[in-house]
Every structure is written in C-alpha cells, then in structure tokens.
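Per your request, structure below.
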C-alpha cells in the first residue's frame, strides 16, 4: 500500500490496472479472430490506460464543482468508465460487433456492441476503488 497519498499515486495505480486489463483483452483477441498485434488491440490497451489516468485525475474532486453534490469513488469511476467505453464503442463499432456476435459472447443474448458500456462502468468502478484505496481521494491530495 502507498503510504503517501497523491494524485501521482492514483495515476500510477490507474495506469497499471489499465495495462493489466488491456493485456488481458489483447490475449483474448485471437479467440474472436483478430491478430494479437493489431491496431484494435493497441487501441484497447491505450484506452484502458487512459481511462485509469482520467479516473486518477478526477479523484481530486470529492465534491462536484458545479452542482455541489458528493461524488464518491463509485460515481466517479462509473461516469468516466462509461464515457471512455462509449467513445471506444463509437470509434470501433465494427470490430466490437464482431466480438459481440461471436459464439463466445452471443450465447448470452448480448449482441449489440453497446452492451460493452456496462463493462466500462464496472471496470471504471474497480479502478476508482483501487485508486482510492491505495492513493487516497479529495482536494487535499498533493500533486507529488
């Protein structure tokens, strides 16, 4: 556990979690007919790492600056995860359609690529929890 709480610690933890999730997705891509080394796989890793970074930065705000309500880690993580996954689905709709229509996923009845938004919410909440647990939250976080 990180003894000193900081924004930098949140960012490092978020990047590591994003890298692990991205590498897992990259390892699973051949199951869906994609090559291991592809732009889709590289984009997946980068997207999850940037999601972790953004959740790390947003962790400075435990109070919404405009609407003045408390933003806990589940709300921050879910909102950022939803936003990043929405961007990801819209930019790579055809590739995610192939994944969702494969026999590995389609047996669950989830054939629309927009079901991946739920994955983004869950992954964002996991990132938010781990970052808050190890590196703190709130406006008192130092930038070191």
């Amino acid at each position: 556990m990180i003894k000193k709480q900081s924004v930098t610690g949140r960012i490092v933890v978020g990047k590591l979690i994003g890298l692990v999730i991205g590498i897992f997705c990259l390892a699973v891509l051949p199951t869906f007919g994609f090559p291991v080394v592809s732009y889709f796989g590289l984009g997946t890793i980068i997207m999850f790492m940037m999601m972790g970074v953004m959740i790390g930065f947003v962790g400075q705000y435990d109070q919404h600056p405009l609407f003045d309500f408390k933003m806990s880690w589940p709300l921050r993580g879910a909102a950022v995860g939803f936003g990043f996954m929405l961007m990801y689905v819209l930019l790579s709709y055809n590739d995610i359609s192939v994944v969702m229509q494969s026999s590995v996923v389609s047996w669950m009845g989830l054939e629309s690529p927009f079901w991946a938004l739920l994955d983004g919410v869950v992954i964002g909440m996991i990132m938010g929890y781990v970052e808050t647990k190890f590196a703190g939250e709130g406006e008192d976080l130092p930038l070191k």
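The helical segments are 7-28, 39-58, 73-91, 93-100, 103-106, 116-135.

Regards,
D.
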